Amino acid sequence: MAESEDVKVLGAWPSPFVMRARIALNLKKVDYEFIAETMHPKSELLLKSNPVYKKIPVLFHKGNPICESLIIVQYIDETWTSVHPILPADPYDRAIARFWAVYIDDKWNPRMREYNMANTDEERAAVAEQIFAGAKLLEEAFQTCGKGGKWFGGDAVGYVDIVLGSWLGWIRVTEKMSGLKILDGDKFPQLAAWADRVCAEEAVKSVMPEINKMLEFGATMMARLKAASSAK
């Protein structure tokens, strides 16, 4: 690892958003300190460093806080330029990568939570259809963005790989908790093969939580969300 340059990541182990910052730093071979945030209650450090959203992760570089995971990954890419480019060099390709990153966070991944929160078979079936439609779009995007390579980034892990890859643990949890096979190798062969490569990537393996630990946390979280929904 390279010299740290006083780099710290404030976050929590279950968070896919925190994983993004850590994966990006790992790819860049930047040494950093991980500061665990309990969230209940939120620490003074978090409230001070991200007073607007009060969310993790927060990246600290030379004492300066940077917030929001997508912004953090871009900051890391633009700061440590000599090792492993993350965003494409071409402006159009870079714009397309950012488009799919936003789609994953704003449109596709929220369907997982909706599926787990659904109360009837009809509701679950309708959400499952949206999940599969989104997976089909991502399968097609993989071919377009990857340009024949093994990653969305082409020949190396890139921006979309980090964004979607950070959700893989929770996608697996959803599959195990619900029985819904999302990354089905028969339906989405390239996406399924890509997911296996991501989980085997050294920069990811070191920060990907153990699945049973995630299952336990996920079950607790879903029970809390359903109890809060019922109370309303």
Automatic annotation (TrEMBL):
Boundaries of every GST C-terminal domain copy: 90-229
Domain GST N-terminal: from-to ranges: 5-84
One Gene Ontology cellular component annotation held by this UniProt entry: cytosol
The UniProt record lists the keyword rRNA processing: no
Subcellular location: Cytoplasm, Cytosol
EC number assigned by the record: 2.5.1.18
Primary subcellular site in the record, as a coarse category: cytoplasm
Annotated keywords: Cytoplasm, Transferase
InterPro entries: Glutathione-S-Trfase_C-like, Glutathione-S-Trfase_C_sf, Glutathione_S-Trfase, Glutathione_S-Trfase_N, GST_C_Tau, Omega/Tau-like, Thioredoxin-like_sf
One example of a Gene Ontology biological process annotation: glutathione metabolic process
One MF annotation (Gene Ontology) recorded for this entry: glutathione transferase activity
Transmembrane segments: none
Catalytically driven reaction(s): RX + glutathione = an S-substituted glutathione + a halide anion + H(+)
Enzyme class, broadest EC rank: transferase
Stated role: Is involved in the conjugation of reduced glutathione to a wide number of exogenous and endogenous hydrophobic electrophiles.
Sequence similarity: Belongs to the GST superfamily. Tau family.
Protein name: Glutathione S-transferase
